[in-house]
Design goal:
Length: 209
C-alpha cells in the first residue's frame, strides 16, 4: 500500500466526527496533490458537469463538504460567483480560502442541524462527502430544508453506499413525501482511476419541491 493509500485508510478509520475533522485538518495541505496527482480524482468535474445543466450562473450555491475547494474552483471556471464553502474541517476550509472563489466559509457538520435559514440556497453540490463515516443519509433532510423550492441538489455517491447505508431508503422516502423529485442519475464511473480503480460513484441530481 502506498503512503497516499494509507492516508485514505487512516481517514476512513476515524472513530467519530471529532477525529475525522482532526485528521482532515492534518491532511488538508497535501489533499490536492494526493487526490489529483495520486488518485486522478474526477468526482468534482463529473458533478460540476451535471450541475451546469440546471443551475444558472447567478445562483447562490452551497458547496457542502467543500474540502480544499476543488469543486468551487471548477464552478468559478464555469462563471459561478456566489458560492459558500461549508465543511466539518477548519483546516480544509483554510485551504479552500486560498482558492479565492468562495464568498463565505462555515464550519458545520452534515448530519446535524445546519446553521442556515430555510430556503437559503439556489443549489447545493456535495462531492465525496455523503459516504460511510462522513455525512449520513439523514443529512439530506437539512440539505433540502436550506435549498429553495425549485433549487437543485447534486451529489456523488458510491453505489454500494447507496444500497447498503440507508441512502436508497432515504432518497425514496423523500421522493414519496414530495420533498424532492429525481432529475437524473449518472452511469457509474471510476472517480479515482489511478489510485482506487475498484471504487465507483454516481452523480445524483434532485430538484427540491
Ligand atoms: C473526500 S473530501 C471531499 C472534498 C471536496 N468536496 C472534493 O471533492 O475534493 C470529504 C470532505 O468532507 C468533509 N466532511 C466529512 N464529514 C463531514 C460532515 N459530516 N459534515 C461536513 N463535512 C464533512 C471532510 O472534512 C472533507 O473536507
Amino acid at each position: 500500500m502506498t503512503e497516499r493509500e494509507k492516508r485514505v485508510q487512516w481517514i476512513y478509520s476515524s472513530r467519530d466526527n471529532k477525529e475525522l475533522a482532526e485528521r482532515y485538518d492534518q491532511w488538508a495541505r497535501d489533499y490536492d496533490e494526493d487526490l489529483e496527482e495520486g488518485f486522478g480524482w474526477l468526482g468534482p468535474q463529473r458533478a460540476v458537469d451535471f450541475l451546469v445543466r440546471y443551475v444558472p450562473r447567478e445562483a447562490k450555491i452551497l458547496d457542502a463538504g467543500a474540502g480544499t475547494g476543488l469543486v468551487g474552483e471548477l464552478l468559478a471556471k464555469q462563471g459561478y460567483k456566489n458560492m459558500v464553502a461549508m465543511d466539518i474541517s477548519q483546516g480544509m476550509l483554510e485551504e479552500a480560502r486560498k482558492k479565492n472563489v468562495y464568498q463565505e466559509f462555515h464550519q458545520m457538520v452534515m448530519g446535524e442541524p445546519l446553521d442556515y435559514p430555510t430556503d437559503s440556497f439556489d443549489a447545493i453540490i456535495s462531492v465525496g462527502v455523503l459516504t460511510v463515516g462522513h455525512a449520513p443519509a439523514s443529512s439530506l433532510d437539512e440539505l433540502i430544508r436550506v435549498t429553495k423550492p425549485g433549487g437543485y441538489i447534486v451529489y456523488s455517491l458510491r453505489p454500494d453506499v447507496y444500497r447498503d447505508s440507508g441512502f436508497k431508503e432515504k432518497q425514496s422516502a423523500l421522493e414519496s413525501a414530495g420533498r424532492w423529485r429525481l432529475v437524473e442519475v449518472s452511469e457509474e464511473f471510476q472517480p479515482l482511476p489511478k489510485g482506487e480503480p475498484d471504487v465507483y460513484h454516481q452523480v445524483w441530481v434532485y430538484q427540491v419541491v
